[in-house]
Every structure is written in structure tokens, then in C-alpha cells.
Amino acid sequence: MLESIIAYITHLIVSFISQTGYLGIFLLMAAESALIPIPSEVTMPFSGYLASLGRFNVYIVIIVGALANLAGSLLAYWLGKWGERTFIENLIKKYGKFFLISIDEFHKSEKWFTRYGQKIVFFSRILPIVRTFISLPAGIAEMNVWKFSVLTLLGSLIWSIFLTYIGFALGKNWNSLEVYYRKFEYLIIFIVIALAVYYVYHKLKKLSHKS
């Protein structure tokens, strides 16, 4: 059942991009970052595949994907800033099931933001689940919008390059990417946590030297 749903969603995304071009890429990637469950693991690799056929310019695909992620993330950021925590929680409890968002996932993104600070806005762009929701706690915390935009754009650019290049390289086998990506999810999470631990360790080391 789940596989057939995923296959149907993939078909819709592929058809939409084929018909609308760069605009379709922008709308789909912006929607994903605005909390609508449209997998970038389908959008960008397929766009990379089309670039390998000469239908798209690969560099434009990458830039459009990153800018779209920024646009959608800003919408979620302002929702968090204007709505505040209680409003967001009530919204998710009532309508989250329609967007595949659970209150636990929202709380998880809050914990990540609290634990790792503003830099998680950058690192989260390559993480499952947290990537989509991190904009909400950033807005609720009233993180500086310019810093949020820069970190989001840089992280989104890396993600966009990665997915587009893989689709470009795999060619007609572009849709096999998701299988491999899932295998590396835990590795990606481990690397991010290791970097955070390393950062905290050196901060504490500096403080101990000062005292």
C-alpha cells in the first residue's frame, strides 16, 4: 500500500516537472520547505536526469532548487515567528495529519534547535525529518532572519547540488537514489552529532583554560 502511494506521488512529481520546467522545480521544492510533504529526493534527482538529457541546465536546476528551499523555509519561519509556540502546536494537532507532521516531530526539531543552536539551521538541510521542520523553532525563537536565510541557503545549496548531481550521474536510474539515501541517514546524523560534540568540547576546553 505504502509503496503504491509513493509510486503515485513520484509519478505526479515527474509529470509536473516535465510539463512546467524550472517553475515546477521551484514550486515543488518551495512547498517541501513550507511543510508540504513533497520529497526533494524525487524532485531534484529527476530534474538532474532531465539535465543529463539536455532538457535543463544543471546549474540552473541547482540554483532554482536552493532558492526554492529558501523561499519555502522563510514561509515556515514567519509562521513560527508570527504564530508562536502554542499556536503552532495547536495547528499541528488539528491539521498535522494532512501534512504528515506530528507533534513529536515538531518537538524533536525544537530539541535539536535548543541543543545545537542556530548552526543546526545549516546542518539540518541534509537531515531527514528535521530538515523540513527546523524553520518553525527558528521562527519561534526569533532567530535573526538574515542569518537564518544565509544558513538555510548554504545548506540548501549543498543538498541541491548533491541530489541534482546524483540524478545527473545515474541518468535513467535516477529514482534509485532514495534507496541509497535511506541507508546513509544514520551516518549523516552521526556525523552531524559528532561535529556538534566536537564543537562543544572545544568550547568547554577554552572556558576551562580561561578560568
Question: What does this protein look like?
Answer:
With about 210 residues, the chain is mainly alpha-helical. The chain has one domain. It contains 10 helices and no strands. The protein has helices at about 1-20, 20-35, 40-50, 60-95, 105-115, 120-125, 130-135, 135-140, 145-170, 175-210. Helix 3 (about 40-50) runs antiparallel to helix 4 (about 60-95). The N and C termini lie far apart (about 60 Å). Residues about 185-190 have low confidence and may be disordered.
Fold topology:
Layout: H1 2-20, H2 22-33, H3 40-52, H4 58-95, H5 103-116, H6 120-123, H7 130-133, H8 135-140, H9 145-170, H10 177-210
Helix pairs in contact: 1-2, 1-3, 2-3, 2-4, 3-4, 3-9, 4-9
Write a concise synopsis of the structure shown.
It contains 10 helices and no strands. By secondary structure, it is mainly α.
